[in-house]
């Protein structure tokens, strides 16, 4: 029989700050954070992103500065996204495989200056295509799976050769994890990890990101033929199972907060490292709440990040990484 009131008073352990600290079931540290950054062409360039107040695109020198900041704050890893100049975008997004593209220059500069910080790179063609899709589009506007997967293998190899530590395919093509793993092994990149965006939903929360990489105005239609339907959870478990079988080292759920049920189910079912992406629209929502006086930024940020850890995440990709790490260091 369970003990009852007044023998049991759950408020006892909450009565003081030290006791709350002592009984905390979940911890959040700077090492749990992955900091996504947008890269701009040029030198000494900072371009604020209107839809993401407080977030800027930086030229490679600025990215290196942010990398040093990440290291000093104890942030484990950064994630890179290029804003490819318009004249280098094409239907087939072949700039993604150029060893001297913006992404590769940023990877090399970071690994040179701050080798102790992990570099995660997104694999998908959307920052490089004129139609804004993650893959190759046929005459009917359909994103074709298998030829896209080949292009993604070339993109992933290009990033690994530049020094990327974690390859993160965000495109949702079938079969690409196995193809990328095989290609990495064959090319000698045995310790380059794959963090698969396994359960990536077709979401209304990606808008500000598409501004940041310059694909919003270009995107024809939506991404619903490859990204998942928000109605589905069992399908997310199938996606994760396949990616693990194909060699993913860790998996991601995206967006974050609206899909915490998926994080919890994936963690329970597979017992593998699970990450979540607190995406651009989630960041913008918090900033809008702060601007409207509906909440206090620091508390909102820490509560949402703790929620990811409580749900089972090993770590979180968040535009608040540096901000949160500063708060945690206080
Ligand atoms: C590209 C990609 C997207 C995001 C990460 N990688 C956008 C999309 O799929 O349209 C979204 C990240 C965010 O909104 O912060 N495949």
Total beta-strand segments: 10
CATH topology: TIM Barrel
Radius of gyration: 20 Å
Number of domains as seen in the coordinates: 1
Give, in spatial order, the strands making up the sheet with the most strands.
1-4-5-6-7-8-9-10
Strand percentage lies at 15-25%
Can you tell me the residue ranges where pLDDT is under 50 for at least 5 consecutive residues?
none
**Computed structural class:** alpha/beta
Order of helices and strands: HEEEHEHEHEHEHHEHEHHEH
Sheet of most strands: 8 strands, parallel, barrel
User: What compounds are bound to the protein?
Assistant: ligand PBG
Number of helices: 11
CATH class: Alpha Beta
The assigned CATH architecture is: Alpha-Beta Barrel
* Outline: globular
Structure description:
With 330 residues, the protein is an alpha/beta fold. It has one domain (27-328): TIM Barrel, CATH 3.20.20.70. Helices cover 38% and strands 15% of the residues. It contains eleven helices and ten strands. It has helices spanning 17-23, 60-73, 102-113, 145-162, 176-186, 207-212, 234-245, 260-270, 280-291, 297-311, 321-329, and strands spanning 33-39, 46-48, 56-58, 77-82, 118-123, 166-169, 193-200, 250-254, 274-278, 315-318. Strands 1-4-5-6-7-8-9-10 form an eight-stranded parallel beta barrel, surrounded by nine helices. Helix 2 (60-73) packs across helix 3 (102-113) and helix 7 packs across helix 8 (260-270). It is globular and about 70 Å long. The N and C termini lie far apart (44 Å). The model has no long low-confidence stretch (mean pLDDT 97). Ligand PBG is lined by residues 122, 124, 126, 134, 170-171, 206, 209-210, 223, 279-280.
């Amino acid at each position: 029989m369970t003990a009852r009131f007044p023998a049991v008073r759950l408020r006892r352990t909450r009565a003081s700050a030290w006791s709350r600290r002592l009984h905390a079931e979940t911890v959040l540290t700077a090492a749990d954070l992955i900091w996504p950054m947008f890269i701009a062409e040029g030198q000494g360039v900072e371009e604020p992103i209107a839809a993401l107040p407080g977030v800027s695109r930086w030229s490679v020198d600025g990215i290196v500065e942010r990398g040093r900041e990440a290291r000093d704050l104890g942030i484990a890893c950064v994630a890179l996204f290029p804003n490819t100049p318009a004249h280098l975008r094409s239907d087939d997004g072949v700039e993604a495989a150029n060893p001297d593209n913006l992404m590769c220059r940023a990877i090399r500069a970071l690994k040179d200056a701050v080798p102790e910080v992990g570099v995660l790179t997104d694999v998908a063609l959307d920052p490089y295509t004129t139609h804004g899709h993650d893959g190759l589009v046929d005459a009917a506007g359909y994103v074709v799976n298998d030829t896209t997967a080949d292009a993604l293998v070339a993109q992933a190899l290009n990033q690994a050769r530049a020094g990327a530590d974690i390859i993160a395919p965000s495109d949702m093509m079938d079969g690409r994890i196995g193809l990328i793993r095989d290609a990495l092994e064959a090319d000698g990149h045995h310790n380059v990890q794959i963090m698969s965006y396994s359960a990536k939903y077709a979401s209304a929360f990606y808008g500000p990101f598409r501004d940041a990489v310059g694909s919003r105005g270009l995107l024809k239609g939506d991404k619903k033929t490859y990204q998942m339907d928000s109605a589905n959870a069992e399908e997310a478990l199938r996606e994760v199972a396949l990616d693990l079988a194909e060699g993913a080292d860790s998996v991601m759920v995206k967006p974050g907060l609206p899909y915490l049920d998926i994080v919890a189910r994936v963690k329970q079912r597979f017992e593998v490292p699970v990450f979540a992406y607190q995406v651009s629209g989630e960041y913008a929502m918090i900033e809008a709440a702060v601007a409207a006086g509906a909440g206090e930024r620091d508390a909102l940020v820490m509560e949402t990040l703790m929620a990811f850890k409580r749900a089972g995440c090993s770590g979180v990709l968040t535009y608040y990484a540096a901000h949160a790490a500063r708060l945690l260091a206080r």
